[in-house]
């Protein structure tokens, strides 16, 4: 378990995700339009699609390659699931625990 | 009162079906349900695995219950947790991951596993199959087989039963040379007799499968990789992968260790309870009832019902009395129905047989005391429904035996819905009868979709969907309703496109987030609906559209087409397929400098630089210094052309010049689906203008024919002639007007060829050419505004629209 401050939330536009290379571990961090932050593994377990490039809503991300939908809360998908990491917004920046 | 704890071991078709039956009897009030499954997935239809292997269906299409279903029904699912021990004294089960669950009632539905015969060279020291050798039982098996088949040249299947032949069919579709190795003297002994099997063998050989009968495998050859199979008779074949489909064995270890009586499987009484313990039930392939162990789905449905009736006490007297084995299936595209015995067994048995090997037709019935005790139908199975019912019910057959096999003299008779017996099975995959559909309609379901969701009829292989639709209509009669949601523009907003457009205009909603907040069911966003709404808002608001990039698919965020490895393709505009030598040189320079992995001439007469990483896009665009080719979105794509009348000796019009005018006017116009255009300088149609969304064909004297709704992709359709016009300007005006009307009226992702078939070409002509609605002027104006509002998105190289728009990954110190 390691925590990392990935910097200000403003690096990620509302409703989108960006990839962060946290000391060699690639993590997709999402900023929902409701202001929440979620962090997940970067690559879709199905065919390696870049999840940070996916469409999101308040609860899930859609992989851009083959439309698999994963829940932010649990990582659950239709036939495979993803790792979700703890992420919180603080005054000092967004903290992600991997 | 505390709920009874029901623990289910096994999350396959039997376990999940049994739980569904419990829930259908109001069991959610009575039981707290916990399920354990070996596989880390929801429950899927194992019968359809062969469709996945052959590429007919995708893995996510065969789920019966996705993971959400368990949550919705308050079922605790431990997916991927294999139960290792049942402690009957403590009434608890323990899984490999340490989970312990206590039960009041236990259901064992652990099913079967592939039987792997002990063949020399098949397994490593730990007993695991060597690389290149596979079982064929789970989604993971399928995935592994498909991956290997891509590289494989010669594949062998050990086992010539149903499963083996299905594996062979799948492998054939992956382009391997396929060999089936079978120990017996004929294929599919369980379902066929010798003459039937011979016809099947011939048919399969015609399809290119090599069949080796009476071959007993002695050893699998090869040091690290598989290189072949050696047989006991001294012969051998070469192959680089092997699928073992030599039958299945019930998973009974757990029951045995728990001290239950196990013979071929766990022995149960007529209530489907283990004979040693009244609190333990067993259903499916791991249960042995009156000496029989069943491996088909139909008996499983019956067992699940008896179990549920009994455990919920809806009917404490419910008893299972065994099932008669009849099955309908498709082997390598050959339809087959088989029931009961395959050979006469007693002297009094009469048998009726018909063969026509050249057509692959074979029919055989075995009749005892005027009743059907066995039968095989191959090739033509039109009489199967009637015969299977007669077999199942043991009903008396008509004296005229010939009519059992053929419809004589009269045209093929279809049983009308009135005549269809109430208990005849409509959906074989999910065991749904005619009366179950009737009950569902009577219970308030008034649409085919609602009935399908409630009963699961039609949700397996889907082949009975048509019949389900007819039955719902028949039962519902006047009360039949159309499911309103099929008309919604997006699923989360209960409005069709015209109403939605009206609401957006009236309320002045200019961004996708405004639309969700004002109009969706719950005020929440829905990721999958965003691009459809963005497309609509762009069409409505033009320059006033509030462009929220998160509403757009990645292609429209970074203006390239995403590839399977996450890189993008860059296609600069090349109007009419024409560029200058200087541009061509720049493209080459960029390709060299950025080490572009693939330079490809596209079907749209442009040059594609494939494999550009996201963070290199701005530099590539800058150095190309050409406008975007818009080759990524649901929008106007390009306009192909032939060389026209400048050089071609047949040319009747300047198709190249017109294509350039079309491209510079309509480039980047968003639309419900892709718009691919072409112009042709004469009716020889070298640029394929007749199969484009919009195509213009020169016919001489400055005249052009305009075709719309053509397609030359997965769907092929010749475009409809919309009208003939007298100038290039009119081509631009009429095609623009057509595209605008399509943009305003088509459903999202509805291509012009589907749209036109829905509304009719006469209606299109009335609106676009004859101006019957008086809408021509406003359509022209709307298109002109959209054209003016479209900008070259590659200019974002110098002024990104969002933070880190083109950043591949932001580095962080750990």
Short summary:
Chain A has 98 residues and is mainly β.
Structure description:
- The complex is a heterodimer of chains A (98) and B (814).
- Chain A has strands spanning 3-5, 16-22, 25-31, 37-41, 55-56, 60-62, 69-71, 84-90, 93-97.
- Chain A is mainly β and 98 residues long.
- Chain A has a single domain (3-97), classed as 3-layer Sandwich (Rieske Iron-sulfur Protein), CATH 2.102.10.10.
- In chain A, the strands form two sheets. Chain A has a six-stranded antiparallel beta sheet with strand order 1-9-8-4-3-2, with no helix packed on it. In chain A, strands 5-6-7 form a three-stranded antiparallel beta sheet, with no helix packed on it.
- Chain A starts with a strand and ends with a strand.
- In chain A, 50% of the residues are buried.
- With 814 residues, chain B is an alpha/beta fold.
- In chain B, helix 12 (434-442) packs across helix 14 (465-476) and helix 22 (728-745) packs across helix 25.
- Mean pLDDT of chain B is 90; it is low at 409-413.
- Chain B has six domains: 4-112 and 250-311, FAD/NAD(P)-binding domain, CATH 3.50.50; 133-246, 3-Layer(bba) Sandwich (FAD/NAD(P)-binding domain); 326-405, Enolase-like, domain 1 (2-Layer Sandwich); 425-482, Orthogonal Bundle (Arc Repressor Mutant, subunit A); 487-552, no CATH class; 635-803, Sulfite Reductase Hemoprotein, domain 1.
- In chain B, strand 32 (598-601) and strand 33 form a beta hairpin.
- The A-B interface holds A 2, 4-7, 10-16, 18-26, 33, 42, 47-50, 53-58, 60-62, 64-65, 67-69, 76, 78-81 and B 40-42, 59-60, 63, 66-67, 139, 513, 524-528, 530-531, 548-551, 553-554, 557, 562, 564-566, 802-804, 807-814.
């Amino acid at each position: 378990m390691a925590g990392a401050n990935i910097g200000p939330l403003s690096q990620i536009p509302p409703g989108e995700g960006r990839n962060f290379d946290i000391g060699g571990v690639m993590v997709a961090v999402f900023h929902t339009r409701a202001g929440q932050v979620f962090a997940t593994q970067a690559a879709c377990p199905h065919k390696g699609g870049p999840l940070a490039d996916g469409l999101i809503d308040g609860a899930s991300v859609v992989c851009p390659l083959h439309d698999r939908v994963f829940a932010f809360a649990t990582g659950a998908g239709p036939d495979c699931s993803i790792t979700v990491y703890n992420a919180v917004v603080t005054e000092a920046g967004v903290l992600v625990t991997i | 009162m505390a709920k009874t704890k029901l623990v289910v071991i096994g999350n396959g078709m039997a376990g999940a079906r049994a739980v569904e039956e419990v829930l259908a009897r109001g069991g959610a009030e009575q039981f707290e349900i916990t399920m354990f499954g070996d596989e880390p997935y929801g429950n899927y239809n194992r019968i359809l695995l062969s469709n996945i292997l052959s590429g007919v269906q995708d893995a996510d299409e065969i789920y019966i219950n996705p993971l959400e279903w368990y949550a919705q029904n308050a079922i605790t699912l431990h997916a991927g947790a294999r139960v290792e021990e049942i402690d009957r004294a403590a009434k608890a089960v323990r899984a490999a991951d340490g989970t312990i669950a206590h039960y009041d009632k236990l259901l064992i539905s652990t099913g079967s596993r592939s039987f792997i015969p002990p063949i020399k060279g098949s397994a490593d020291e730990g007993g695991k199959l060597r690389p290149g050798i596979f079982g064929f039982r789970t989604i993971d098996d399928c995935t592994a087989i498909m991956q290997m088949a891509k590289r494989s040249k010669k594949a062998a299947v050990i086992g010539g039963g149903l499963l083996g032949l299905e594996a062979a069919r799948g492998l054939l579709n992956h382009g391997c040379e396929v060999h089936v190795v079978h120990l017996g003297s004929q294929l599919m002994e369980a379902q066929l007799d010798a003459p039937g099997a011979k016809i099947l063998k011939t048919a399969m050989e015609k399809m290119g499968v090599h069949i080796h009968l009476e071959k007993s495998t002695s050893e699998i050859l090869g040091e690290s990789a598989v290189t072949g199979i050696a047989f006991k008779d001294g012969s051998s074949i070469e192959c680089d992968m092997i699928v073992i489909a030599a039958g299945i064995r019930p998973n009974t270890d757990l029951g045995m260790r728990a001290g239950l009586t196990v013979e071929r499987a766990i022995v149960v009484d007529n209530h489907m309870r283990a004979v040693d313990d009244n609190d333990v039930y067993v259903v499916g392939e791991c249960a042995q009832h009156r000496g029989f162990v069943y491996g088909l789905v139909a008996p499983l449905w019956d067992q699940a019902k008896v179990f549920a009736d009994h455990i919920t006490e809806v009917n404490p007297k419910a008893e299972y009395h065994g099932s008669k084995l009849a099955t309908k299936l498709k082997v390598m595209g050959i339809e087959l129905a088989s029931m009961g015995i395959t050979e006469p067994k007693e002297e009094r048995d009469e048998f009726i047989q018909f063969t026509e090997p050249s057509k692959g037709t074979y029919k055989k019935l075995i009749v005892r005391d005027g009743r059907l005790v066995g039968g095989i139908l191959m090739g033509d199975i039109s009489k199967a429904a009637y015969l299977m019912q007669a077999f199942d019910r043991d009903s008396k057959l008509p004296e005229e035996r010939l009519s059992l096999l053929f419809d004589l003299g009269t045209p093929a008779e279809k049983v009308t819905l009135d005549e269809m017996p109430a208990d005849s099975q409509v959906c074989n995959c999910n065991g749904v009868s005619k009366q179950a559909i009737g009950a569902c309609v009577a219970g308030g379901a008034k649409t085919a979709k609602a009935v399908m969701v409630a009963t699961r009829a039609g949700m397996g292989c889907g082949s009975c969907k048509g019949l389900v639709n007819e039955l719902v209509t028949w039962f519902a009669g006047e009360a039949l309703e159309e499911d309103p949601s099929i008309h919604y523009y997006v699923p989360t907003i209960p409005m069709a496109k015209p109403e939605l457009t009206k609401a957006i205009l009236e309320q002045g909603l200019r961004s996708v987030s405004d639309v969700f907040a004002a109009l969706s069911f719950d005020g929440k966003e829905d990721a999958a609906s965003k691009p459809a709404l963005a497309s609509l808002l762009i069409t409505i608001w033009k320059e006033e559209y509030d462009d929220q990039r998160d509403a757009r698919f990645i292609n429209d965020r970074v203006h390239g087409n995403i590839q399977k490895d996450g890189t993008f393709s860059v296609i600069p505009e090349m109007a009419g397929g024409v560029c200058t030598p200087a541009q061509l040189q720049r493209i080459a320079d960029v390709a060299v400098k950025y080490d572009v992995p693939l330079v490809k001439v596209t079907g749209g007469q442009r040059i594609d630089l494939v494999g550009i990483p996201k963070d290199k896009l701005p530099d590539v665009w800058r150095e190309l210094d050409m406008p975007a080719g818009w080759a990524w979105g649901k929008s106007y794509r390009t306009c192909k052309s032939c060389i026209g009348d400048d050089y071609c000796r047949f040319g009747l019009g300047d198709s190249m010049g017109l294509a350039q005018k079309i491209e510079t006017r309509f480039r980047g116009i968003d639309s419900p689906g892709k718009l691919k255009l072409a112009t042709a300088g004469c009716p020889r149609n070298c640029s394929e203008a007749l199969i484009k969304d919009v195509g213009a064909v020169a016919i001489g004297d400055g005249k052009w024919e305009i075709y719309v709704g053509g397609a030359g992709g997965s769907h092929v359709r010749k475009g409809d002639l919309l009208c003939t016009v007298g100038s290039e300007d009119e081509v631009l005006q009429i095609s623009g007007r057509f595209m605008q009307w399509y943009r305003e009226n088509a459903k999202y992702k509805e291509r012009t060829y589907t749209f036109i078939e829905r509304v009719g070409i006469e209606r299109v002509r009335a609106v676009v050419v004859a101006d019957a609605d008086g809408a021509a002027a406003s359509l022209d104006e709307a298109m002109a505004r959209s054209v003016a509002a479209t900008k070259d998105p590659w200019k974002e190289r110098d002024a990104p629209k969002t933070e880190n728009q083109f950043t591949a990954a932001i580095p962080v110190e750990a």
